Amino acid sequence: MLVSSSAKNAAKAKKIATLLKDRFGEIHWWPGDTDEVMIGAVLTQQTRWENVKQALSLLKERGLCSMTAIYNADSHDIEDAVRCTGFFRVKTKRLKSLAGFVIETCGGVKEMADIPTPALRKGLLGIHGIGEETADSILCYGFFRPSFVIDAYTARIAGCAGITVKKPDLKPLFESVLPKDANVYHQTHAHIVEYAKGWCTKKRCEGCRILALNE
DNA sequence: GACCAGGTCCTTG
DNA sequence: CAAGGACATGGT
Questions:
Q1: pTM, whole model, 2 decimals?
Q2: Which of A11, A73, A106, A146 is deepest in the core (most CB within 10 A)?
Q3: Which nucleotide has the shortest C1'-to-CA distance from A54?
Q4: Which nucleotide is nearest to A153 (CA to C1')?
């Protein structure tokens, strides 16, 4: 019984990935450099990407779109630029903490590329304000590491597709059915979010029926 | 006006 | 451990 339900979960996860890949093809998400990805990962917490883009533009205009700039900047200047993403004081503190880790602990963004994924993930998770999703986004989109991102949409789609595992087990589930490849993880997560945005809200999820993900 | 957004942390029961 | 709240702005 345990074996067969986990086999079903795996089959459903694989089906989601396959159907959405056919539907969307190649998606280009987070085309920015590593610094920009890290900043965007924090700013997008509980926030639409359209608002994040505005903040990133402001940060760029003001020469604040890098870890060293964030590290050295006056917090008020950061707050002013990221205001449109909401939680702006909290996010400014989180950006400062992240920059502190990058500069002081790692010695810079370039140096982070030499840190093995497990150690880097552990380090990121140790930063106040960086949780699993933000850490995995940074790893996958910023450093091209095969660390699958689970967000609210992924959990929602998985739930309405009939996958029965709890949220903490979704990451290993998807990683077990996909080739261990950062670009595959990148594409799959992007597909899920794009699809969920169109069909799934907190109240109701129509999407799985449309693509017959739950059959 | 109500409700939600590509979360995370803290406090309570 | 689960549930609820705080953080805050902007769009539907």
A1: 0.95
A2: A73
A3: C10
A4: B6
